[in-house]
Amino acid sequence: MIIIGGGIAGLMAALAAAPAPVLLLNPSGLGEGAASAWSQGGLAAAIGADDSVDLHIADTLKAGAGLCDETAVAQIIQAGPKLIETLLAYGVRFDRDAAQNLARGLEAAHVRARILHANGDQTGAEIMRALIAAAHATPSITLLRATARHIFAEDGHVTGVLASAAGEPLRLPANRVLLATGGIGGLFRYTTNPPSALGQGLILAANAGARLKHLEFIQFHPTALDIPGPFQPLISEAVRGEGAILTDETGDAFMRGADLAPRDVVARAVFAHQSAGHAVFLDARQIGARFPTRFPAISAICAQAGIDPQTQPIPIRPAAHYHMGGVAVDAHGQSNIAGLFAAGEVACTGLHGANRLASNSLLEAAICGAQAGRAMAQIAPAPPAHLPAIAPPPAPDAEPLRDLMSTSLGVLRDADGLTRAIAQFALLADQNSAAQLALLIAKAALARQHSIGAHTRADAPSPLHQAA
After folding, report:
1. Is the model more confident about 466 or about 271?
2. What is the Cα–Cα distance from 311 to 307, expressed in whole angstroms?
3. Least enclosed by CB within 10 Å: which of 25, 106, 402, 445?
4. Inter-CA distances, 439 with 181, 280, 454, Å
5. pLDDT tens-digit series, residues 86-111
6. Any catalytic annotation for residue 263?
């Protein structure tokens, strides 16, 4: 049993599979390079006395703009409260209020405060800390510092993985493989993701014959810190939940009270305001002296950029943040290739539809990772298959793609831009797996000719469903 990826989905799968032996492939140490540890705002779960699973389901379906799988939504959201108990048992230290109840924050498009957080704005890092400790204490989990380069499949069944470690190819037979490789933000010029998030799990799956779904739906977070560099640090939605508002250089609060609208709505508004020549800021000054305590990581990020959120508005821009599409999987994380599973951002469970509700991603990664791990452990091991000797494919190179991805597949798209992108990506796809994935995404975006959720076509601006 092989798990590719060491973030929350991969670790939850490995722990849930125990005591079945698992080989966990990650290029570096557990958690290193994973977007999970970068997650700030928190994890959504309906645990409050004023809340209910039904309300959380309704918010998720509304944000998803009619494209959610309602069965998947119900199954995952219903599992949320139990997940919190599991994470607490693993030693996750969620923040608590003065009465020692679990503290709950408010984020966009939630009708209740249901966002659990840790260390203020370091929720992902705290969950990862606890899961890594649990993994190190689990004898059935073995870490191999390696990069997966190819998935072997024969007659619709997975048979193994080709990996590279220290420059050497490794052929690893396995009849159960889980992809937990994260997202695609590194394909864009502006992203809140690690630069290594190039969607390679999607290409591994596609080349093995797995079905991909909803590739065109890419969430752009409206408030990334607008600074030069390889990535743009996220300014969590929770900051707006605490009262921050979007303004421009004139001080105009241009969202007119809709600062906590769904992310696609806010990202389009910020993009339009910037396209009209305005600078856009997140004004958190009304949070005042509470800011460094409530948001210590964001405070440190801003300080490094020479910004004091207590006295200065924070310059922001939209940035590629989360991919709603992925490997099409069932309730157990199983793809159409027998034995090939996916969980976390690389998977498409149907939870998010056309637009992810804030803080549902950690929820999904943890629940679906564990479900996949249990399902894999129930499959009997098979005799090792013969894996042919093949040369590893070239390493992905996103740099030639980033500007075109950002202009043609960004917040606003149109047929002309997508057609040009497809032509350019096609020239590179044979020798560059990142371009191969970019080509698939662009084709999916061109094929969906109406606007819906996070997929906005300037040449078809009226949304089929309006998430508000």
Report:
1. 271
2. 8
3. 106
4. 19, 31, 19
5. 999 999 999 999 999 999 999 888 99
6. yes
Domains in the chain: ranges and CATH: 2-185+193-200+324-377 (3.50.50.60), 224-317 (3.90.700.10), 394-468 (1.20.58.100)
- Is residue 182 within 8 A of residue 344, CB to CB? The reply is yes
Q: How far is CA 388 from the centre of its chain?
A: 33
Encoded amino acid at 170, one letter: L
> Which helix (H) or strand (E) element contains residue 230?
none
**Which residues fall within 8 angstroms of residue 323, CB to CB, at 6 or more apart?**
183, 184, 185, 199, 215, 217, 218, 219, 345
For 210, other C-beta atoms within 10 Å of its C-beta total 25
Q: CA dist 454 to 63, 269, 270, 460, Å?
A: 10, 12, 14, 13
For the segment 258-266, the average pLDDT, to the nearest whole number, is 88
Beta strands in 227-269 (DSSP E): 245-248
> Whole-angstrom Cα distance, residue 352 to residue 436?
24
Residue 14 banded pLDDT, cuts 50, 70, 90? very high
Give the single-character DSSP code of 380. Answer: P
Catalytic residue among 189, 240, 263, 317: 263
Q: What tokens does 279 get? A: 């600078």
| Structure tokens, 75 | 């199954």
Q: List pLDDT tens digits, range 130-157.
A: 999 999 999 999 999 999 999 999 999 9
b/e burial code for range 100-122 (CB count within 10 A of at least 16 → b): eeebbbbbbbbebebbbbbbbbb
pLDDT in tens, 173-224: 999 999 999 999 999 999 999 989 999 999 999 999 999 999 999 999 999 9
Kindly state the helix (H) or strand (E) to which residue 347 belongs, with its residue range: strand 347-348
DSSP state of 394: P
Q: How does DSSP assign 20-77, residue by residue?
A: S-EEEEESSSTTTT-GGGG--S-EE---STT--HHHHHHHHHHHTTT-S-HHHHHHHH
**Average confidence (pLDDT) over 59-64:** 95
Of 445, 269, 444, 263, which is closest to residue 356 (Cα–Cα)? 263
Q: What does the block give as tokens for 374?
A: 């249990």
Please classify residue 387 by burial: count the beta carbons closer than 10 Å to its beta carbon, then call 0-12 exposed, 13-18 middle and 19+ buried: middle
pLDDT above 60 for 465: no
